[in-house]
Amino acid sequence: MYKERGILIVLSGPSGVGKGTVRKELFSTPETNYEYSISMTTRKAREGEVDGVDYFFKSKEEFEQLIEQGRLLEYANYVGNYYGTPLDYVNDTLDAGRDVFLEIEVQGARLVREKAPDALFIFLAPPSLSELESRLVGRGTETDDVIQARIAAAREELAMMDLYDYVVENDQVERACDKINAIVTAEHCKRERVEQRYKAMLKGDL
Ligand SMILES: Nc1ncnc2c1ncn2[C@@H]1O[C@H](COP(=O)(O)OP(=O)(O)OP(=O)(O)O)[C@@H](O)[C@H]1O
Ligand SMILES: Nc1nc2c(ncn2[C@@H]2O[C@H](COP(=O)(O)O)[C@@H](O)[C@H]2O)c(=O)[nH]1
Fold first, then answer.
1. Which of 33, 114, 149, 178 has the fewest other C-beta atoms within 10 Å?
2. 17 in a labelled binding site
3. Extents of the domains making up the chain
4. For this UniProt entry, what's an example GO CC term (predicted)?
């Protein structure tokens, strides 16, 4: 039986905007029907992060081997570390008719746009630059140098938001989640093309 391919959902935006927080909130409810693609990274695990849950933590050599073997849908070198999306997991899950959710930075999202133009691109925007900075500082997981580098990157990343299908402001986590779920539901309605099935039925083709 023909099975509709899942939708590749790409949530992107600057560091500290709340992508991880929004993603965890989305996945904490049983109604959420997406599969989260766990990324590979060469970054060191933060306190409490678990290999195979938060990321697959890799050495630089291991990561470069994955690149050479073509096993990543996309990857980026972001503020001194590699981050990438496993290709087979994404393809197998989409082929099984399940939606896949990527939470990635902006360079990577651009590469996905080239390789999978039918993906759904959502940019998570902060209420303001100063709020972005205070979220990044308040998280307390990076050194001052890294925070400054991420803020510098954020200015360039924010300039890319009009390349996305949708921009969702993360003023409140629950509100942002509701909007993302609504966008995905609408995208399913669009792709199901119910009206074409009706037209075929009315013509007697089905
Ligand atoms: N809507 C919100 N209002 C206030 N604080 C928020 C909101 N969303 C997230 N935060 C806080 O902002 C900080 C950064 O959030 P988070 O780690 O989810 O960002 P991120 O975009 O995933 O960052 P990175 O790209 O660096 O992984 C966290 O301390 C989080 O609790
Ligand atoms: N291009 C990709 N970016 C990714 C991927 N997984 C995570 N990320 C993004 O990297 C930055 C930094 O993450 P952090 O965990 O060190 O704070 C952040 O914007 C993530 O969304 C990926 O597979 N590809």
1. 114
2. yes
3. 8-203
4. cytosol
